[in-house]
Amino acid sequence: MKIFCLGGAGRICREAALDLVRFSTADRITIGDYNETEGRRVVEWLADPRVDFVQVDVTDRARTVAALTGYDVVMDGTTIQLNGISTACIGEAGCHGINLNGFGEEQASAALFEQHGKSCVPGFGMTPGVTQMMAMHAAAQCDRIDTIRVSHGAFRPVAFSASITETTTYEYDPALPGRVVFENGEFIQVPPFARPREVLLPEPYGRTVQYIIPHSETRTLAQALVDKGVRLIEVRGTWPEPNMQLVRALYDWGFLRNDPIRIKGIEVGVMDAVAAYLMQSKEGTETALYGYALHVELTGERAGRQVRHTLTHTHPASDGSVPEWAGLRAYTRNVGIPLAIGAQLLGEGAVKTPGVLIPEDAFAPARIFQELEKRDLHIHEEIEELA
């Protein structure tokens, strides 16, 4: 099996590559990135004879397709704004593909994957990704579903990388049409900071106030569970409280519109200037608590009784007691590991349907949970009957 790690020099994708080195049956793992210096550092860090480096610029389609051709799987760690371009390259090269974001641009390449008999699974990290597996696991135990509420806490700095900065500004873009809830058979667009809800995350994170975010679970779960009678699907998220305070202020003051301003005769987007500052500042690149926490709550009916399933996930502490999970790596490993698991399953032929697939149609929750357990990532479930 040959796996190409596109954007492999990034903080998250390099953790996924490390997981491939440790757990996959791949005989070649290529780090592909525009940044040759950083990419070669990742190869040196991985220290495995199966790993090599190829410089690649996904905006150069012909050269990227040539670089990818011959690989079984492309594990795509590029940013949201590049996913449409990168997916088209993967499809044309005749490889299986998987990425972290899943914001919909990938669907335009469905015919390419079908033509080559290959599968592409957009949006498979922690959320989206593992969250859908948690919801599907609970849904399989119910005859009818009333509500699904997906929540997560991503405890990381607001701007430790360009892609994370982009994700932050994208998700709270006031004009974003994809920020929706599914309610009574319809997708309803909501503004940033809509429908606040207190969510109790596993320790050390505790109680958090979360808001609707534009993640793909809303649409994919509605599609996957269309026959279960679901009347409400909401997806929420939060970052560390100072991050949320900052983003709220940026939203209230209009910064997130990214209006053009002039500084010493040079025109820039005001949010672009803020993002550049954050990426170069201590405040933007550090936080007090690192890690990830998932929370999925599903209510429905089983054998005539109303039930609530609450699923959460835990991981090793970020306090240094487990060195490989210390600090920022408690966040980046959480996101990168599911991506690697999905890439491995694609390479092993576990996904039989060609085309662009939602995670719910690609992977079996039990298999994903089993693989997560091997990496000390644990899914917990509590089931209670409702009056």
Can you describe this structure?
With 387 residues, the chain is of the alpha/beta class. It is built from 14 helices and 18 strands. The chain folds into 2 domains: 121 residues, NAD(P)-binding Rossmann-like Domain (Rossmann fold), CATH 3.40.50.720; 212 residues, Dihydrodipicolinate Reductase, domain 2, CATH 3.30.360.10. Strands 7, 8, 9, 10, 11, 12, 15, 16 and 18 form a 9-stranded mixed sheet that branches. The protein has a 7-stranded parallel sheet with strand order 3-2-1-4-5-6-17, sandwiched between helices. It has a two-stranded antiparallel sheet with strand order 13-14. It is globular.
Protein topology:
Blueprint lengths: L1 E5 L4 H13 L4 E6 L2 H11 L4 E5 L5 H8 L4 E4 L6 H11 L2 E4 L10 H7 L2 E3 L8 H10 L4 E12 L6 H10 L8 E4 L2 E4 L7 E5 L4 E7 L4 H8 L7 E7 L2 H12 L7 E4 L2 E4 H10 L2 H4 L5 E12 L2 E10 L14 H19 L7 E2 L2 H4 L2 H10 L3 E8 L2
Helix pairs in contact: 1-12, 3-4, 4-5, 6-14, 7-10
**Separation, N- and C-terminal Cα atoms:** 52 Å
Radius of gyration: 20 Å
Mean pLDDT: 95
What's the main sheet like?
A: 9 strands, mixed
What overall geometry do the principal axes of the alpha carbons give?
Answer: globular
Number of helices: 14
Overall CATH architecture of the largest domain: 2-Layer Sandwich
Q: Can you give keywords for this protein?
A:
Rossmann fold; globular; 2 domains; alpha/beta; single chain; Dihydrodipicolinate Reductase, domain 2; 387 residues; nine-stranded mixed sheet
